Amino acid sequence: MNRKTIYIGSIMVIILILLGGWGYYTKHNTIIDFNKTEAIPEYQVKNKEVPLRIAMVSVLSHADTAKYQNQLADSIGRMLNRPVLVLRRKSYAEINQLLNKGDADIGLLSTGAYCVYGKKEELTLLAMQQRNNLPYYYSYIIVPADSTDYTFEDLRGKKFAYVDPLSYSGFFSVQARLQKIGITQDAFFNSYSFTYSHDASIRAVAKKFVAGAAIDSLAYDYLLKYRPQIASKIRIIEILPPRGTGPIVARKGLIDEKKYSRFCCIYMRIKLQKMHWIIF
C-alpha cells in the first residue's frame, strides 16, 4: 500500500467520524435558528425617585467630615422618604456652579459664597447654622505657638495661607483688614496660597509652612475639643469682626416652599446645633 492510498484512507476515516458525531449531536441537541426570534415580554420596572442632591465642601479633613455629612444626608432622606445624594466638592466656587447649573438641589454655603452668588433670586433660603444660640462666627488670624509675631502687621513680608477665595473667615475678612490699612495682599505678603480647608490651613501654620493663616472660629472650637494636641501648636493673634453664618439654600421650584421650607428650618436647626461645626 503506497503512501497516497494511506493518506486518502485517513481522510475518509476522519470525515466519517465527523459525520457520525454531527448526527449524534443533532439527535440529542437542539439547533438554534437565530433567524427565528420571539418577543421578550415587557417587565414593569418602577421608576426610582430622583435623589435629592445636596452639595457641600469639607472645611475640615475628609475623615472628620464625611461621617457627619452622611448622617445628615441619611436623616434628610428618611424624613422625606426620598434617596439623597451628597455631592462633595473642594471649593465653594464649585458648589455655586452646581447650584447655578441646576446640578444640585440644596447647597450648604459659606457666608462669602452666598454673598457673591449672582442669582440669589433663584435660591430659597432654608436655614442658617447656629452655635451656642449665636447665628454668627469670627475669623481668627493664627500663627505658630512659638512665633515672634503678635499682631497682624507683624505678618508683613511673610507667607500666608487663605482657605478659599469665597470664604469669609478664610479670605474676605483678611481683604477687609488689608483695606483698612490701605494696602493690597500682593504688597503686604511675601506670598500667599489657598489650602481649601480650615484643617489644612491650621496644619500649615502648626508645621510652620506658612507664618500665618485666617481660619473659622468654629473650626478652631472643634480643634480645641477634638484635636488639642494640634491646637497647642498655634496661637490666635487677632480676632476679626463677626459675620452671619453660612446659609442652607435650595433651588427655586424644587418643592412646595411653604411645606418644605418649614420642615427644613425646623429640622436643620436641630441637626446643625449638634454638628454644624463639622459640616461647614
- Helices and strands: which structural class? alpha/beta
Distance between the termini: 95 Å
What is the number of E strands? 10
Number of helices: 10
Determine the mean pLDDT.
77
Q: What is the fold named in CATH at topology level of the largest domain?
A: D-Maltodextrin-Binding Protein, domain 2
**What topology, given as strand order, has the largest sheet?**
2-1-3-10-4
CATH architecture tag of the largest domain: 3-Layer(aba) Sandwich
For the biggest sheet, the summary is:
5 strands, mixed
**Which H/E pattern describes the elements?**
HEHEHEHEEEHHEHEHHEEH
* CATH top-level class of the largest domain: Alpha Beta
Radius of gyration: 32 Å
Question: Low-confidence parts, pLDDT < 50 over ≥5 residues?
Answer: 24-32, 37-47, 275-280
Beta-strand residue percentage: 15-25%
Q: Name the CATH superfamily assignment of the largest domain.
A: Periplasmic binding protein-like II
Give the tally of structural domains.
2
Question: What can be said about this structure in brief?
Answer:
The protein is α/β, with parallel strands linked by helices. 44% of the residues lie in helices and 21% in strands.
